[in-house]
Amino acid sequence: MSCCKKWGKILEVLKNWPKRSIQVIIVTDGPPKTNAPVWCAVPFEHEGILSSLSAVLSTIIGVHYGHVLVHMKRHIDRLKQWFIVGISLLALGLILHFSHAIPLNKQLYTFSYICVSAGAAGIVFCMFYFQVDVLNLHHPLSPCSWSA
């Protein structure tokens, strides 16, 4: 979809929006300068290949959590796996950060940040899974429900 078509769709949605007082402000630096290097006009991943590899690693960890859900049938087995992986990743990330090996930096999407965030997510997921699927306490999380 070209840029003009995208803006046309956005403007069409805004025109049909219930409130008419919406304003769109777009901030850009404009086109590249005439003396800019050639690569300035080419689309690129501004965060670099390391950030892309970090995103892939984060996705693989999430897929592992899902893999456990599909292939392990007992609640206790799932919880043990998620909790062990979560605690291990959290500990690894904190050790890397506090030993000054790899700083915990969200902007750079460092390996230690991936470990801490994926480990914490695994532990929180364990708590929600235990509450909803093991104890059947659905009411505290009913606002998060998909069903109507």
Mean pLDDT equals 80
Distance between the termini: 34 Å
Number of strands: 0
Helix content bin: 55-70%
Number of helices: 4
Structural class by sheet pairing and helices = mainly alpha
Largest sheet: none
Element-by-element helix/strand order = HHHH
| C-alpha geometry | flat
Strand share of the residues?
under 5%
How big is the Rg?
Answer: 22 Å
Low-pLDDT residue intervals, each spanning 5 or more residues: none
Number of structurally distinct domains: 2
Transmembrane segments: 82-102, 108-130
Keywords: Membrane, Transmembrane, Transmembrane helix
Organism: Zizania palustris (Northern wild rice)
Protein name: Heparan-alpha-glucosaminide N-acetyltransferase catalytic domain-containing protein
List its traits.
membrane; 148 residues; 2 domains; Heparan-alpha-glucosaminide N-acetyltransferase catalytic domain-containing protein; mainly alpha; transmembrane
Helix-strand blueprint:
Layout lengths: L2 H13 L33 H23 L3 H24 L12 H24 L14
Helix pairs in contact: 2-4, 3-4
